[in-house]
Amino acid sequence: MFNRRRFLAQIGLAGSVPFVLSAFGEETYQDYVEKVLGFRKARRDPKWVDGSMWINAADFSDYGGWVYDTQFAHLMGSGVLLAAGTGRPVEDAKMMFTMPEAKPVRIWVRARNWDRATRPGRFQVVLNGKKLNREFGAADSDEWIWEDAGIQELSAGMHSLVLHDLTGYYGRCDAILLSEDPSFVPPSGVDEMKILRARLMQLPEKPKDGGSFDLIVAGAGPAGAPAALAAARLGLKVALVTDRPVLGGNASLELGVNFNGADQHHPNAREGGICEEATRIRARFDAKEMSLAFGRLADEENNLTVFKNKHINKVYKTGSIIDAVEAFDVCTYETVRLNGKMFVDATGDAWLGYYAGADYRLGRESQSEYGEKYAPAVADNVTMSGSLLAGPKGTFWLTERTGVDVPFQRPAWAYDFPANPEFGRSLKWFQTGDWWFEYDGKMDDLYEAEQARDELLRIYFGMWNWIKNTWERRDEARSYEMEFIPPWFAKRESRRLLGDHVLTHPEALRVEPFEDAVAYAGWGLDVHHPKGVFSGREGPFMCVDHMPISLIPYRCCYSRNVDNLLMAGRNISVSHVALGHVRVQSTLATVGQAVGTAAALAVKYGMTPRGIGQSRLKELQQTLLKNDQWFPGLKNEDSADLARTAVCSASSEQASRPFDEVAGDLTGKPAELTSGRGCIIPWEKGKKLSSLLALMESKAGVGQRVNLRIRAASGPQDTSSREDLLIKWGQVEPGRHWVPFQINQSFDADYLWVIIDKLDSVSWFLRKGTVDGGARTWGSDWKWSSIPGGSMMLFTDEELAAGGSSPASAAVNGIPRPSEQSMNQWASAADQPMPQWLQLDFEKAASIGRVQLTFDTDLNCRNFDTPAFPAQCVRDYRVEVEENGRWVPVVEERGNFQRHRIHTFTARRTSKLRVWVDATHGDRQARIYEVRVYGS
């Protein structure tokens, strides 16, 4: 059964203000969750000061069913207790406070009626067991206001205070004020309220000195965390500042957005570097989000200091240079000043850049500005809607199957959506909600973010009503009850800071060869409809086009008018349309690593970020590659790498393998052709296809004709086409055979959809593992379904040479991942037992103290569902150097699960180095993409 309190506790948002502990040494993700439950509270004991007592929402010792919400503290001034129910009042929040002496006091409650007409979030305050004679959150105003609870006689000593929810519909309380002055009225303005709170909480007048840093990174999401880690690893003293209690941003334990990237649509395209390292940790500990991984990596860096629950709201500048920032704690309201040399804005909403006076853009450019076909005729401030999410699995809502009919009545404040086809949506998983529950893009989700969140509540409850009472499949939902709709707001778009260049859709589409490239994108052009769920027949997308692997220039990653400000995340310098291509988590993580690296070089050389791009660009790119961040066209040219000129040999090498042998490793279960089946494969427009081979099995007693169709597709799940570009037939004989189809035709399409028609007594074999950016389909032209990443046993003529040679020399060719021409890895012979070794012989003896190894972790698996231990990844290995005629061990590793490993050791003078692979995680071959060797 669903346990709401347990769920909230697991994601760190119930029972106390969370300062989530990093988890080291846990064997499972559940161990990590249990560790998170050991929260350290930020609550305080309210004191009587100057005739008044200020009680924060955070001061309640037991939140009950309320959650502590700090998302909008920078806008409305505080964190609040929120009764996030589903129409059933949540459990009471409770606390005790002490009066120093008996006296009458007037009580004020700061609350908000979030829907003025219907007053959905009403609650009561219970003092010493007696309900105050007023319902709060019901005032004739939809602003945050102080509501008068009247005068109460209080004795000296302890008193109990309770927030009692009346509706289960997101009532909210910020603070409670007790005053001995019956005529005192607390100020309504946010700034005046902050001054009063600071006085009554006796907060320090000046911000605390938080220290001086080489780099300050604002925002600890998928871009900010890698930026901070990259800079710290390169020697900078780094402060990572986040207004959340956990690291990870949209991909955190709070929200749980998947780490999507180019690997969804392109072969061997999974992002490397810190992105790969973190997602390997996530998979290793069976976490569904990135808080554990980023927390673990941050705690390992002595140069990195993490400031949690801190929102930067002030910037100190000298001319166009930022000197320092000031941040307030969203739980305790204390302020801290941090001095820095370089700054990175990875806040998403670009608050650091805004306070620093950086040029920015909000909304959509006109079509004439950049020649983007999906841009509107006239520029506007429309942005893509966010979603409400709850981690750790990125759930839009939580339902429970009860076994009995559960009726649902739409709240008056929720939207009433029409029946299909006017609604224009297809719902897959009603149990967990869907991403297209979105508001109209005209909402101001920057300065009216709380109202935007509330608009999503109206939509979500309206959608549940649609599912229960209008949807054509509503009978499937009859026994389901809504348990939880999360209040946490995952944004997709807001401000974008402007750099020396603005990346546009046409540039990405034609793969502009930017000389200053520092990252790549491979996600589709995924721009959501500007009207959100109200777009009707037009559907949820403005566009969802397939895109090539494109480059992201460094000039998009630093401010054009603030000299020491870089940016990473969805606030980089791109157009609104191009943002649909680069905004996903894995892509932004690589941008984060790039700007962290650039900041390190800027500090090292005393230069601005712009100066690094002008005179140290090659060093920046080579430093990224050295740390496993690759992009197309980049090759190892590091003169300090002794391995580049080494002669390689190995205990064995994989020569070209027969096609049947390679295919045999990939063959899965047979799938009967009781319906049509097919697969969608990426294609190069204009390229000629000579032939196809399909592995099939017939149980019929005679040979049968099998029909194959080829259609065009726009993406790996596009099954909309009903036009056959080509129809071929083949002959399948009894038994198991490879059935050939001669094609000999060019296709002007981004994807080819290959279909084999229904045929009795015949099966088409499935393919093991993931496929390069494609999908498996089944059904008919009445209805097709697809599984992304799946495939059938279907091979093009180019794949007939699968399993090409993987010589020892490939480990030093400078390209640490597969390309169209080569696997670019050494692989031992498949018929040779472990251990296997790879040896490097240098031109002359040298002092060696550092070795970098890059292993195969299956770059065709998606970031969010990669196995913990890919079979081909090297598990146990050793490194030896030859010294005075004998081999001396310098590295020994057991249980490896990472792609990129760096080992330093006491320097030894040698002319030979050998890497021993003792075991993999299941594969029979030892595989190494790259070996680098340095003096230190």
From TrEMBL:
InterPro entries linked to this entry: FA58C, FAD/NAD-bd_sf, Galactose-bd-like_sf, HdrA-like
Keyword presence, 4Fe-4S: yes
Pfam families: F5_F8_type_C, FAD_oxidored
Organism domain of life: Bacteria
Residues of the F5/8 type C domain: 780-936
Gene Ontology MF: a single term: 4 iron, 4 sulfur cluster binding
Record's keyword terms, sorted: 4Fe-4S, Iron, Iron-sulfur, Metal-binding, Oxidoreductase
Protein name: FAD-dependent oxidoreductase
